[in-house]
Amino acid sequence: MKPQQYKHSLICFFFFFAPHVIAVLVCSSGIQVAHASSHHHHHHHPRGGISKLFVFGDSYADTGNNRKPASSWGVPYGITFPGKPAGRFSDGRVLTDYLASFIGIKSPIPYRWRKYAGHRIRDGLNFAYGGTGVFDTRISPDPNMTTQIDFFQKLIHSNVYSKQDLSSSVALVSLAGNDYSNYIASNGSIQGLPGFIVSVVNQLALNMKRIHDLGVKKVAVIGLQPLGCLPRSTASSSYQRCNGTENMAVGFHNSLLKEAVAKLNTESKSSAFVILDLYKAFTTVFNTSQNHPGSVRFENPLKPCCVGTSPEFSCGSVDFNGVKRYTVCENPELAFFWDGVHPTQQGWFSVYSVLQASLDQIYT
After folding, report:
1. Which domain holds residue 325?
2. pLDDT band (50, 70, 90) for residue 44
3. What is the annotated signal peptide range for this record (predicted)?
């Protein structure tokens, strides 16, 4: 059976921004249905001299820092893993868990639980909070990236981690999507968006340099995912088409990030900074059709598994009487997206499978 293809017109867009008049041409094109293997491998023996993972980010990386009543602590989140809500914005594992598995360590515990963790902090710590950004966001009062790094710096100054610990560590940086949602929610103009993107990437680069300067050996930053393909953006087309304009803005962010990372590597005379291309990984999964045995067929990769029964409700919503105002698909393994923004465990696993070839960068 051939995968159904969702087509939309190729849109190209020029961004001009000062002080240098640079035109960036970003194009967006169609997407297709995907398949991915459903096998999950978890090895716990550090390899390549890396034994710690420090995570700075948002809900794509948070494994439990958000407090209740965040949706990640409510039913039906966590139904696949660990079988109940556990602070992850998914039905199961997220990117952090897969990266830790790749390194061969346990997923680092959330910063909020560090006092109860004992020796577990030797795997590193997760400072990511769902809803946060490079800058403050309206969505969340939780710590932005700068504050997350402040927490990390305090632990280093308190000798929780030694220089040796840091020299065998890698940092995952997963931020910026909420900055753009916040910009739009705050009535930021389309004309002002390129300038805002420049300021987000500039701050991101400063923060990454700071993490490296604190002694972390490698800093892996995610290239922004195709925000225009998130269900919240595709709902208006009944989950058939990505929003090309949003994806163009993401393309601009990612091209600036690439330049910033190249500059950081030049300045530090190293290859300490690497990009994990989430945009390419998401679109590869959307476009790939693999008919080998055991592959998973994402019926429609843009359609979420868990949806509110009407637009004012979202996944996990209940009314005043505690009545569910959402529905969950029969098999989350057949869905790429869990809710309006976040992938399912299977979605993350398929993205991780695409990224795996480039993950060796963290050892070079």
Report:
1. 5-363
2. low
3. 1-23
